Amino acid sequence: MTQIELGWGSGPSARYEQLAEPFRPLFQKIRASAVERDLERKLPYDEIKALRAAGFTAVRVPAEFGGGGATLPELFNLLIELSEGDSNVTNAVRAHFGFTEDVLNARNPQRRALWLGRLAEKTFFGNGHTEIGDASVSAFSTVVSKKDGRDVLNGRKYYTTGTLFADWINVAAQLENGEPVGVVVSRHGGGVEVLDDWNGFGQATTASGTAIFTDAPVEPDQIVPVSERFKYSNPFYQLVHLATLAGIGRAAAGDVARLVRERKRVFSHGNASTVAADPQILQIVGRVRGNAYAAGLIVLKVAEALQRAHEAYLGGDEEHAVAAIAIAEIELDQSVTVISDLILQATTILFDALGASSAAKPLALDRYWRNARTIISHNPRVYRDRIVGDFAVNGTPPPGQYRIGTAG
């Protein structure tokens, strides 16, 4: 069935249904096994492998390189659908699509052609960005240095989501002189250890643990100054989280509707002889679905702003690109709190439509709230409304790239 027939509205383009159709059976298969993975903490190795084989990980790669040539709105709609299957899987591919975006925007034609070709060949990328502990907000302790006449990488990263599944790791580091750079390191090239030590109560199967680099070899052409990275990276990465939340909302809406439809027991003080006919229960189901619907529409509207930023950057007009990227950032920021509230409410009130049996662990309905709450903590909303307010009142542009660490 199409998105329209399912009540989620039209897709972001006339060709979207054709683009999405080959992936939907895979999304449904991923959803069918999502509860098992959550309860047993099984990492989605097979699911990532299947997505790669189906060409999903190359969907943003231009058609001339052998990819799907999807626009950003098309990509984010697909990520909503994937997240309805399992939000953990979407989180695991987030860094891969971020690297793809980086390559699509590369000014160096050789670099662009090399990595787009590898992406089309279904190569998969993980990440190494965040440092924890005493890491500084203004510098990385992960450093590219010289050893025996060649470049090597040393350091430790956390929240390396998806890296256990990867062929290559896209790492944020710095040179010995302090210059920040991006480095692509082979996952299996020696000097790389990836640990499955993520212990969050949600998004538990994303492989978001530690990556340790010990004299990991780096080729000179795999080092890129931060100034050459794609400029709308912050709203891009954060919008993946919002798309994931929208997909969680859709999944929760589907489950609560099904369970209400199947429920036989009623309360003596209810309003009908079946739960499926009780208007108060139907109101809850409708609210969950409405929240998910609104979240998805907001995601697609922000994705349009990202597409404009991408096109402006490729157009070469720096002033236009800077303005478009700033607006994309503002559109993202003014969406974060709204979508977060919508999905947190939806994943909480769904239990009001069901009895105490809905808390049974085998149903794993709690995973929707746990996963949403975890994603929202990774996409901190506490500062977003202030940033938007400062823009609205004072014309202050958004801060751009975010970092976390100690203030010293």
From TrEMBL:
Tagged with keyword Metal-binding: no
Record Pfam families: Acyl-CoA_dh_2 (PF08028), Acyl-CoA_dh_N (PF02771)
Entry annotated with the keyword Cell division: no
Domain annotation Acyl-CoA dehydrogenase C-terminal: ranges: 241-378
Domain spans labelled Acyl-CoA dehydrogenase/oxidase N-terminal: 26-121
Keywords, ordered alphabetically: Oxidoreductase
InterPro entries reported in the protein's UniProt record: Acyl-CoA_DH_C (IPR013107), Acyl-CoA_Oxase/DH_mid-dom_sf (IPR046373), AcylCo_DH-like_C (IPR036250), AcylCoA_DH/ox_N (IPR013786), AcylCoA_DH/ox_N_sf (IPR037069), AcylCoA_DH/oxidase_NM_dom_sf (IPR009100)
Superkingdom field: Bacteria
UniProt name for this protein: Acyl-CoA dehydrogenase family protein
